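Let us work through a complete example step by step.
Step 1: write down the sequence.
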Amino acid sequence: MARQPPVMLSELELDALTELVNLGVGNAALGLREMVQEEVLLSVPNVSIVTREQAIANLGQSPAKRLVAVHQNFDGDIRGRALLIFPEAQSLELVRAVVSSDLSLEDLIELEQEALAETGNVLLNSCLGTIANSFGRTLRISLPEVVHGDGSDFFDLTPWPRIDDSVLFIYINFSVRRANIEGYLAMLLDLPSLVTLKELLAQYITLLGGTTTVIPAPDAG
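Step 2: predict the structure and record it as tokens.
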């Protein structure tokens, strides 16, 4: 039997977290729209808490053998690492959508790391910021870094967070300049942070009167 995360979220807590993530990616879509001067659509159909091993297995189901990730560490009441992950083969397609469709392949390759880092920075900061602000908390977020590899590479970048940590695993789909790109958001949390997240979600639900309504991300068009 597969190992389960040490702390699980209830259905109501997952609904609340999904709502917050949707708000975060909606804000990110608005930020990306300002970058590309065109409609950006982002959706979050699924949010779950899994073990690190399960997250790696989920990424392994992707047809793409090579992946690229933009990652940032965050620290505060909740601490961990956030990653934006998508197939490496789509990285230049994303760069072309974000920067300009008129650039040569040589120029795209030269701008790839910078454009990926900026895209990840907008999306990750928006999600983390929205969640933290909704809880009345603040987070310190590091500068973005880009890494290429497979799922196991992304979850073993440094000794911290610890190897047995849980992962907030989020499937996302985004469309930029008519380019459809599928990817994932992953947030690695240590056990104390996962416990704190559960407590903050319970408080958030109480403030909402004990119920949540999952709303779609704002249209950035």
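Step 3: interpret the result. The longest strand covers residues 40-51.
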